[in-house]
Design brief:
Number of strands: 6
Low-confidence stretches: none
Strand content: 15-25%
Number of helices: 4
Bound molecules: pyrazine-2-carboxylic acid
Largest sheet: 6 strands, parallel
Strand order of the largest sheet: 3-2-1-4-5-6
Radius of gyration: 15 Å
């Protein structure tokens, strides 16, 4: 068994102080760093980044926080960078997505060599993936569903994620169940804001 960890969108704009801050985002960055600081079980560790230039109606000045969002993770701004508390940076590849349209799934991205995540994982002989990062109910959700659809045995490690709308998280769990995605752990209770 060859297992990869996919670290989804642990970027400044998705953490406290960012333009689309998810409660508990910085804590997730810290927990993922701890997970990867010690001996960890992963053969391959990759990351994804939201990487917007002009993603059309994905950005809005009057966002609904479901299909439209405040501008975030714009290429060339500080908000697109990995969060400072993500101290692990030794990724085998980083997959950027969403330049000109919404792209919730890391499987829509490409790395610096033009490889897709599916290509990369397949060539690395990966058969299992664990998915962590931000946000549980959007980019983690979509990345995990696509991983399962591409035939990878897929687990979301909830303790290492943070959700935009924890009160509606059951919808995400249901979508994972239909897709054959496993979950482990539990969604952290975000710090009071
Ligand atoms: C995300 C909302 C908008 C995410 C990206 O990374 O989960 N959420 N764009």
């Amino acid at each position: 068994m060859t297992t990869a960890l996919i670290v989804v969108d642990v970027q400044k704009d998705f953490c406290e102080g960012g333009s689309l801050a998810v409660a508990g985002g910085a804590a997730v960055a810290e927990r993922i760093s701890e997970l990867l600081a010690a001996d960890h079980p992963y053969d391959v560790v990759v990351a994804t980044r939201d990487h917007h230039i002009d993603p059309g109606s994905h950005f809005s000045s009057d966002p609904d926080y479901v299909d439209s969002w405040p501008p975030h993770c714009v290429v060339g701004t500080d908000g697109v960078e990995f969060h400072d508390q993500l101290t692990f940076r030794d990724f085998a590849a980083i997959f950027d997505k969403g330049e000109y349209q919404a792209a919730y799934s890391g499987f829509e991205g490409k790395d610096a060599k033009g490889r897709t995540l599916e290509d990369f994982l397949t060539r690395a002989g990966v058969d299992h993936v664990d998915v962590v990062g931000i946000a549980t109910d959007y980019c983690v959700a979509a990345t995990a569903r696509d991983a399962a659809a591409d035939g990878f045995a897929t687990t979301v490690r909830l303790d290492y994620t943070a959700a935009v709308a924890p009160d509606r998280i059951q919808q995400t769990y249901d979508s994972w169940e239909r897709a054959g995605v496993e979950v482990s752990g539990s969604l952290p209770v975000p710090p009071a804001s």
